[in-house]
Design a protein that fits this description.
single chain; 213 residues; alpha+beta; Alpha-Beta Plaits; 2 domains; two-stranded antiparallel sheet; 7 helices; 61% helix; rod-shaped
Length: 213
Amino acid sequence: MDEWGYILRLVAAIVAGSIIGFERELHDKPAGLRTNILICFGSALFTVMSVMMVGEAYSDRARIAAQVVTGVGFLGAGTIVHFKGNVLGLTTAATIWAVASVGMAFGAGEYGLGWAATFLTAGVLFGLAFAEDLISSWRVTTRFKIKLDATVKTADLIKQIIDEVGLHTRSWMITKVEEGLTLRISVTGPMKKIEELQAALINNEHVTSIKRV
């Protein structure tokens, strides 16, 4: 194959990387448009180089491809962050890994496989982003700081209100202060029910103040 054929593979990899990177950029992710283009392009270029060097004593096509996978693994690991009990960046790392494989497909001249993988990856990212937004609207965690007078059984009162609304309590802390009691709670459930809980607390005569934190 002449050099123009190899260049066409690289151009295809750039286009594929931009399609996937567009979704990442649209959702303001750390690895956006440029990052995904460069990963796809770089993987394709390494694969093209391994193809071109076949036959030389020091080269091995499969060896270079394997090193691309290893290098991308380290790159993906750098995007994963553990913050306050939550693991962030797993989708970004998985996307980097997938984009590298797309680039390798184009670098090897497998256009059909490369385009299929590109549109499947983009479809998963776009489609599941919508599904996650839909799910999150039904599973929201909200924290409240509530001040009550000291004339009621706080635990029983608030527990009853939460049960009536239909939410799940994740954490609960009561502090005794001069004005009465301060209650910090974390509840999980649909946003609509969170708003119902807030309204019920505001309308309760024993609640002196309420704040969402």
